[in-house]
Amino acid sequence: MKTGIYLVRHGETAWNAGGKFQGHSDIPLTERGREQARTLAARLSSLKIDAFYSSDLSRARETAEILAEPHQGTVYYLPELREINFGQWEGLTFKEIAEAYGELSTQWWTTPLTTQIPAGERLQQVVDRCTRAITDILNRHAGETVVVAAHGGVIRIIVGIALGLDLNFFWKLRLDNVSLTILKYHGSDKAILELFNDTCHLPDES
Prior knowledge:
Blueprint: E1 2-9, H1 14-17, H2 31-44, E2 51-54, H3 58-68, E3 75-77, H4 94-110, H5 123-140, E4 145-150, H6 152-163, E5 180-186, E6 190-198
Parallel strand pairs: 1-4, 2-3, 2-4
Antiparallel strand pairs: 1-5, 5-6
Helix pairs in contact: 2-3, 5-6
């Protein structure tokens, strides 16, 4: 009995467009982000989807609500699916963090599982809460198809755990806004990655 988990990164926000770390900051979708979500909703509209889950942050929440609308589905919000809490780094760009935090910034890119972000989280804390959330979803929806709208860091972690990767390198997995990633679980501890970071539903803006 297979359980399909359709992982969707939220649509674009103004901070995405500006290259800023968002974390727990509750930044809403841009109109472009909403349109991105609508294109994926159209792609998924003909599928039988049994449940919709989302992080409780507005950018993921609204993405999930747009995806659920064609199915008249209810979205369940889980704080455990929030992005990493980047603490004092939220609102800053990669360059600004590197300049202001130097060695600590370097540690984050090499050993994020054990690096404590100022006023934020270690990656291991996010791993623990994401694992609880996905395990609960799998237990509730065995044999069903579930859409989970979340964040880049969260989806990288879920995929990394499923594939047995060293999560100190989770950031090497690219996740675009409103990309679709599909994991098929056999029970709660065996998963096959069927699709990753797919954006064929989005217009080519190159």
